[in-house]
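Morning. Coffee machine broken again, so started the prediction first thing and wrote up yesterday's gels while waiting. Chain of 106 residues, entered below exactly as on the submission form.
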Amino acid sequence: DVLQGTRETKKYTKKGKKGVRQEVEIHEKPGKTREDALKDLNRLVDKSTIKQGVRMGTTPNGDLIKVRPSSDGRPTLEIIRKTKDNKKKTLKIRYGNPEEGNKQKG
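Came back before lunch.
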């Protein structure tokens, strides 16, 4: 389970593109790296591609999985799931500590 060893830091709802309501949860995995994020991605998808520096793939049930840098520079595993009522549920797992992300970014 990719959530093992994480702690939830934020949860909110926003209106996304095309007015679709999106629920977002953000978790942190302190002490982990981009390599850990890529390992988690590879456990979830059979095949992944790289587009504009973002590695992504789709699970058998249709979830879109991405590994990308976050706004503070930390690697982030993002899981985007469409729900039956046409909403989106997004889980973001930030790897490493916030202060490490700022060092990577600058």
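The chain has two helices and seven strands. Going to sketch it on the whiteboard this afternoon.
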